[in-house]
Design goal:
Layout lengths: L2 H10 L2 H14 L2 E14 L7 E13 L7 E29 L1 H20 L7 H20 L1 E29 L10 E8 L2 E10 L5 E4 L4 H6 L6 E8 L2 E8 L5 E6 L3 E5 L9 E6 L3 E3 L10 E6 L2 E6 L3 E6 L11 E2 L24 E6 L12 H15 L7 E4 L19 E15 L2 E9 L5 E5 H10 L4 E13 L5 E3 L6 H11 L5 E5 L9 E2 L9 E2 H11 L5 H20 L6 E4 L9
Parallel strand pairs: 18-19, 18-20, 20-23, 23-25
Antiparallel strand pairs: 1-3, 2-3, 3-4, 3-7, 5-6, 5-8, 8-9, 10-13, 10-16, 11-12, 12-17, 14-15, 20-21, 21-22, 23-24, 25-28, 26-27
Length: 599
């Protein structure tokens, strides 16, 4: 049909008929549905595909990992298969609903209606044939546009139909299947290797499966784990079974607890991290082990430990860390020392009177053991009290003439002695910590204190002896009970390494060469520990070994310095070796004919 024929049809068709024709077209096109295929996976694997088996191995794999409550590693047989799958592009069919866009459709239909009105009514102008044709085409185009420009309603609805198209790649998967008891080889044995930090602890090539599994008790190696304790220790377990190898790296802290074992003669337990008598709970002996609770107290000096059902605090330098497990074949040892009130130890009772009191007699205790971060000396306070009791009871010294000086206290650094000049006897008990310092061509002994923040203080003992000489006493007796320590290159305190007698001889000579009626007793050589007389039963004396036998000698009424020297030499070193397996040699310089008693 020619354009002129179309125009004639449109010209003869009344306007309202044209509009009525557009209404059902719009209503029919107001909504619709379509179907389409979409790519859902680029690398899909068809469930109907049979994979290619690349490898098949039997292995013993961990099924129960060790824990603190049960430090046993359990391994059971599995089949491990390596499979290869072909990947394909996956498409799925879906249905999508559409509806008209209200605003857009209203504008398009309004424009179509307006074009028709212009073409058929002459409302604004009288169009010619060509103009009527263009207006009718415009109206038809706007009407069709309102029908085709739709919006989707909701999500596409899958129809469940899918297809796998061309190959897109390959996927290799490992599948692990546990073998049943009937599938396990009856003659199966495993080769087991357990190592710690590359040190082999167990190597057994014939471990038989029991009830289809093997179990390894890792707590059985707690002694080996503790030899070189480290928080990040790893137990390496390697198991070979029917050609399959399983390697497991297990942190030791996962199945063992950190304990601290006391390596001092004793260690005090405190309810709070303060060395005050009111906070002391009890004392435990060398070899005792307690579990460490994570974290520290106020500073690194303290450990928080579990003592029975309660928490307690212990000085960190009292022991060393080790691994332990409650599942081990032995229980941790706790040797608790019973509290012995002062006065119940034999040398604290029935002190004899050895000397008639004289007006010029004096006694002096000099100690730097309190609040000294260089270390701690147990029972020194008790030994100080014992010394005071013998001074007042055995030697009849007025309590007002017994002084206690602490050079590591603020204001006491210069250690100025006060004494009555002339007449009488001066007895000195020097305790705590010392160190050797090089002076010119010889080593000289100093009192040594370490304060908070690493502040060190030194008091020259020879200067102290000069002050004793300045008192011009008729007799001077000095009992030196010091542990010689030093600071290593890493800033840690340790016992002095030398065991030379020369520094002691030189120090004593500065006194005894100038005061003929004097004597100096040294409890031990530098490098040796002044040990405690502590143990179980009758060996629990609660004093330093040196001071115990000094008091015992006085109680036995030994008359002279020489007799007391022989008594100490016969007993101190022997007792230290018997109780602690370490030497302690007493050294005495000066006048061995000086007498302690005039009765």
């Amino acid at each position: 049909m020619s354009g002129g024929g179309v125009m004639k049809i449109l010209e003869r068709m009344p306007l309202f008929i044209l509009i009525l024709l557009m209404v059902p077209m719009v209503l029919a096109g107001g909504s619709c549905t379509t179907t389409r295929w979409s790519v859902t996976e680029q690398y899909a694997v068809s469930p109907r595909q049979a994979p290619e088996i690349l490898n098949r191995t039997e292995k013993l794999l961990p099924t129960v990992m060790p824990s603190v409550n049960r430090p046993i590693l359990r391994l059971e047989p599995f089949v491990v298969e390596t499979r290869q799958f072909t990947q394909q592009i996956k498409v799925e069919r879906s249905v999508q609903s559409y509806e008209m866009r209200p605003f857009f459709s209203a504008v398009a239909l309004s424009g179509a209606t307006f074009a028709l009105v212009l073409a058929h009514t002459g409302l604004l102008f009288s169009p010619n044939a060509d103009q009527k044709l263009m207006l009718n085409i415009t109206a038809a185009s706007l009407g069709l546009l309102s029908l085709t420009h739709l919006r989707p309603v909701g999500e596409p609805i899958p129809t469940g139909e899918s297809r796998y198209l061309r190959e897109s790649g390959f996927e290799v998967l490992t599948d692990t299947l546990k073998l049943g008891l009937g599938e396990v080889a009856p003659d199966g044995v495993a080769s087991v290797r357990v190592a710690l930090n590359e040190r082999v602890l167990l190597a057994d090539d014939a471990v038989a499966l029991q009830d289809g599994a093997i179990e390894i008790n890792l707590s059985a190696f707690y002694r080996e784990f503790s030899e070189r304790y480290r928080q990040d220790d790893l137990a390496e377990v390697e198991v070979l079974y029917r050609g399959g190898v399983t390697r497991s790296s297990i942190p030791v802290r996962q199945f063992m607890e950190t304990y601290v074992e006391v390596d001092q003669d004793l260690a005090e337990l405190w309810s709070e991290p303060f060395m005050e008598q009111e906070y002391e709970i009890t004392e435990i002996a060398r070899g005792s082990s307690l579990p460490v609770i994570a974290g520290v107290a106020a500073d690194d000096r303290w450990l928080r430990v579990r003592y029975g059902a309660r928490e307690a605090y212990m000085l960190a330098d009292r022991g060393y860390f080790k691994w332990f497990s409650d599942y081990a074949n032995e229980a941790p040892l706790v040797l608790e020392l019973r509290e012995i009130p002062y006065g119940e130890v034999d040398i604290e009772q029935s002190i004899p009177v050895l000397r008639t009191g004289r007006d010029g007699d004096e006694a002096l205790i000099i100690t730097n053991s309190n609040d000294n971060l260089a270390g701690s000396r147990q029972f020194l306070q008790r030994s100080h009290r014992l010394f005071e009791d013998y001074m007042t009871t055995a030697f009849r010294i007025d309590p007002d003439r017994i002084q206690t000086l602490e050079p590591n206290r603020p204001g006491n650094e210069n250690l100025q002695l006060s004494c009555r000049r002339g007449r009488g006897r001066m007895i000195v008990y020097l305790s705590g910590f010392s160190t050797l310092r090089q002076e010119a061509s010889e080593s000289t002994l100093y009192l040594y204190s370490l304060g908070e923040g690493g502040d060190e203080s030194f008091v020259r003992i020879r200067t102290l002896f000069n002050q004793l000489l300045a008192c011009q006493k008729e007799e001077i007796l000095v009992f030196v009970d010091l542990d010689a320590v030093e600071m290593d290159d890493e800033g840690q305190i340790r016992m002095q390494q030398t065991q030379s007698m020369a520094p002691l001889r030189s120090l004593a000579a500065s006194l005894v060469d100038r005061a003929p009626n004097s004597a100096v007793f040294f409890a031990n050589l530098p490098g040796q520990t002044s040990s405690l007389y502590s143990g179980t039963g009758l060996d629990d004396k609660r004093h330093t070994i040196f001071m115990y036998f000094v008091a015992e000698g006085w109680k036995k009424r030994l008359r002279t310095v020489g007799e007391l020297e022989r008594h100490l030499s016969s007993n101190v070193d022997y007792t230290a070796r018997r109780l602690h397996d370490r030497p302690q040699e007493v050294v005495v310089f000066g006048n061995r004919n000086l007498t302690f008693t005039d009765r």
